[in-house]
Amino acid sequence: MATPSKQKHDTAKPTPASLGISTMKPKFQQYALPSKRHESFTEASVPWPETSPVKVEDLVAAGLVNTGVGDSVRCYHCGGGLRNWETGDDPMEQHAKWYPTCQHVLITKGKTYIHCVEAGENHEHMSEQRSNSSSDNSASQQQQESMQAAAEFGYSEENIAIAASLFRERNVVSSKLRGSDLVSILMEMEDDPDLGLNVNVSESCSPTSPSNNADVEGDDLQNLVLENDRLKALYDCKICLDNRADVIFLPCGHIVSCPQCAPALDLCPVCRKSIMGLVKAQFANKRNYVDNDYGECDAL
Question: Could you tell me which residues are beta bridge partners of residue 255?
């Protein structure tokens, strides 16, 4: 009887780094926190050169520490050194260029960023193009979100559209339409019914969902703002309280800190389990560069 032969798998088993997972510990753990790296520049016995063309904040964000020798710096994580900085240098980009396996760059920027740097992509140009191409869409999306928020207060589609048109008449074209501005105008219209007369309503000024008429009090808007602030705080890094918490601890899966603070932790602050790896979370509402099948960098 014939028996099946063992199949050979040509595809190599992916490594944690190839999956964007950081499993290595920093070589200089004492500089894992950004504040400690910053102190190496501001409180060093040999001051950082005032003529340096790169900002200290950018060097710190790139994981670099002042060595006290000229403009030489060293990464707290991989130990790689950089020096002879020139005008226009981006510390993070130079870090990724010369030390593409550094775990700090991997967890902070992601493996796709490293691939793009290796491919010689100009990130400032790419970001500018992406910003220009998406500015109109972003403004339109923000307007729709603001109008939907007003609709949740019970205002009619017609009044919301009139209020949006009034906002455009009162402000410059580049002004962003916020929900609080829209509700403020709607409350003005309640006090002065003639305010919305003879207003040319733009076709783009229409909420995407129907609503019922209801009275809105100032306290409701304040509660909405407070709730929005509370939800934003949930995503703040619990270490520095400044950056967004978007690093997943493995294996527990908790999201507690930002990429700058995560390497300083050995145990998860939530469950106290050992952190065996870190991976940067990519939220669905965030625009990111991704690798396509041809290894090129595309914008979502």
Answer: 248
Comparing CA positions, the residue from 146, 159, 161 lying closest to residue 201 is 161
Pick the last residue of a domain from 173, 200, 233: 233
Is pTM, for the whole model, over 0.70? no
Angle (deg, nearest 10), helices 157-170 and 179-191? 110
Work out whether strand 289-291 and strand 297-299 pair parallel, antiparallel, or are unpaired: antiparallel
Are residues 85 and 38 part of one domain?
yes
Which residues does 164 contact at the CB level (< 8 Å), separation at least 6?
Answer: 143, 147, 177, 182, 201, 202, 205
Task: Note whether residue 210 is domain-resident.
Answer: yes
Least confident of 52-56, 57-61, 233-237: 233-237
pLDDT tens across 65-121, in order? 999 999 999 999 999 999 999 999 999 999 999 999 999 999 999 888 998 998 886
Query: What span, in angstroms and rounded, lies between the C-alpha atoms of 214 and 148?
Result: 15
Please tell me whether residues 65 and 98 are part of one structural domain: yes
**Residues 161, 207: Cα–Cα separation, whole Å:** 7
Spatial separation of the C-alpha atoms in residues 46 and 34, rounded to whole Å:
19
One-letter amino acid for residue 132 of the chain: N
Cα–chain center distance at 145? 20
Question: Is residue 268 left, alpha or beta, with left meaning phi > 0 and alpha meaning psi from -120 to 50?
Answer: beta
Tokens of 143: 């307007």
Rounded CA-CA distance 182/79 in Å is 52
Domain count, the chain: 2
Q: Is 273 left (phi over 0), alpha (psi -120 to 50) or beta?
A: beta
Does residue 171 sit in the same domain as residue 214?
A: yes
